[in-house]
Amino acid sequence: FFNSMPKAQIRPNVITYSAAISACEKAGQWQQALALFVEMPKAQISPNVISHNAAISACEKGGRWQHALAIFEAMPEGSVVSYNAAISAAAKAGQWQCVFVIVDRMTRREISPNVITYTAAINACEEGREWQQALALFQSIFRATISPNVLSYSAAISACEKCGEWQRAISMFEAMPETRIQPNVISYSAAIKACEQGGQWQRALGLFEELRASTSDLDSISFSAAISACDKGGQWQQAVNLLESMPKATLHIDAICYIAVINACERVGQWQRAMVLLHAMVSVVVGNIVARCL
User: Fold this and answer.
1) Mean pLDDT per 10-residue run, the chain (294 residues)?
2) Three-state secondary structure string covering the chain
3) CA triplet 14, 20, 25: central angle to 5 degrees?
4) How far apart are CA 160 and CA 184, in angstroms?
5) Rounded distance, CA 235 to CA 247, Å?
6) How far apart are the first and last CA of the chain?
7) Phi, psi of 93 (to 5 degrees)
8) For residue 1, how many other CB atoms are within 10 A of its CB?
9) Which of 33, 125, 37, 121 has the alpha carbon at shortest distance from 84?
10) d(Cα 189, Cα 154) in Å, to the nearest integer?
11) Distances (CA, A) of 72 to 47, 57, 86, 159, 229
12) Cβ neighbours for 168, distance < 8 A, ≥ 6 positions apart
């Protein structure tokens, strides 16, 4: 439709270009979105905030953070949506220092960050293993009188967990009900991993059972975290039970889960069980390789 406009003697304008770029962005066609954006000045049409935002988001979703930031830098004036898209692009690339530069610029230009801004920035700190910066940003949400959401909590918990700050992670997880926020699979999985790090296998299993009772939307990450906690706690039977329950939850058992259970069995001399699991793991891995080749 867009390409047929000149043939119909209809001149595209900034609105039609912006709509086309947004459509490409939503369809995951970052290259087409970028091509349309670059085409605008050649057609003597100045991109507006909407077309800039759509192009930045398209590049961000396509993993082209450098393109996204280049478009952002070229903007004469951005909105909170523009800043959030740029922060998300930098965050996904692990460019946490760049994120802080963008947040600082946002503040200097008196554009108020929202919960999306803070969550994206905390995610960047998580990727960069900067838990102290992540906590500082999380506290900034409250100072800005913004209500945190499950995503901002989950990002902060994950940042602490990944940096070995398991007690802080658990403390934040336990504070969620106080703000009337229901933990999701991501926050539960991060809390379970934190318990694993702290050698709290019973607590990890308790959280896993809470999660299993509250939702059917379990994932392999939560199972893997619980299995690893059992492994480190010497609970090989619990680890085996969790592994065997994964197919019932319609989940694919990956090599990480198998290895954790094999390790748990090996630690207590259950070598026969470990060998059976090893053969099962090899069959799964080989099957996956064959499936990819077909």
Assistant:
1) 55 87 89 91 88 90 88 84 88 82 85 88 84 89 88 91 89 90 90 88 90 80 87 87 82 83 87 88 70 63
2) CCCCCCCCCCCCCHHHHHHHHHHHHHCCCHHHHHHHHHHHHHCCCCCCHHHHHHHHHHHHHCCCHHHHHHHHHCCCCCCHHHHHHHHHHHHHCCCHHHHHHHHHHHHHCCCCCCHHHHHHHHHHHHHCCCHHHHHHHHHHHHHCCCCCCHHHHHHHHHHHHHCCCHHHHHHHHHHHHHHCCCCCHHHHHHHHHHHHHCCCHHHHHHHHHHHHHHCCCCCHHHHHHHHHHHHHCCCHHHHHHHHHHCHHHCCCCCHHHHHHHHHHHHHCCCHHHHHHHHHHHHHHHHHHHHHHHC
3) 120
4) 17
5) 20
6) 37
7) -90, 5
8) 8
9) 121
10) 9
11) 12, 10, 7, 27, 43
12) 131, 135, 160
- Cα separation of 271 and 129, whole Å? 37
Please give the structure tokens belonging to residue 264: 């748990």
